[in-house]
């Protein structure tokens, strides 16, 4: 998404960071990869997971997302998409995204699971433990992986599966079929984006664009668009607060909403970075206060365990379904 939406970001300094969400996702992904490759040792892999994630991993339905896949699937399968000639190749299994040296027109990607369906259609799967990526056909991670898999295999279409594992361990599977026609368009768009990257590399100050893609951008902490934005927002948000008390037109309210959401994204990113630092080392706030990691506990109803217990007592799926009630609520969103 960043390559297409903000080509200028690709010439900025990148800073890797680990958040609690990314750490949890990495642990869950590592467990799923081993459990898929060797289902018979699943219980052992559960015990290898850090204790705070063990019960959650034990509740996951590993096989539910692999229906119709032939034996011999691969995990952490990497590909290289070559925009110079519209081709792609398999790089085999690559862990931790340690890709080989490449040109700006070679784009590496890794799929969580790669396999072949019964009708010989290639399939790749991406696990998501919480974050909803929206429509698969609009997501550039899935588009790029689809292009790489289809071109590397020589197929005319490829099936993409996004498997969402919810907090209760339940699986939501969302499939989508990408065609050769789709892939041709994606390759053209990516090539156009790389042209912009090369152009921005010649500029003293690259052209940057802010948006949802900024959340996970490795350039975020030093991005000129955000550092200048943060300082400007302080004054602007103060003006907005005053204007809210005196009344806003609908048009001004729309502009205020966009500025406030941008400020929220900047603030959340700053807090996320500070929390990562606080986990490693406490730092003072002044006035005798400090920020650091603490351990808390709570008692919660274990719905996956309850489902297994109720099923063991003889309840049917229909009876268990009757235990759920539908609730609706109102919310404000774009």
Short description:
The chain has helices at 2-5, 20-37, 42-48, 51-59, 140-153, 180-200, 224-246, 250-280, 303-312, 317-321; strands at residues 74-82, 87-93, 106-116, 122-128, 157-165, 171-179, 283-286, 289-291. With 334 residues, the protein is an alpha+beta fold. The strands form 2 sheets. The chain has a 6-stranded mixed sheet.
Protein model, in words:
Helix 5 links the parallel strand 4 (122-128) and strand 5. With 334 residues, the chain is an alpha+beta fold. A six-stranded mixed β-sheet has the order 2-1-3-4-5-6. A two-stranded antiparallel ribbon has the order 7-8. It contains ten helices and eight strands. The mean pLDDT is 80. Helix 3 runs antiparallel to helix 4 (51-59) and helix 7 crosses helix 8 (250-280).
Secondary-structure blueprint:
Blueprint: H1 2-5, H2 20-37, H3 42-48, H4 51-59, E1 74-82, E2 87-93, E3 106-116, E4 122-128, H5 140-153, E5 157-165, E6 171-179, H6 180-200, H7 224-246, H8 250-280, E7 283-286, E8 289-291, H9 303-312, H10 317-321
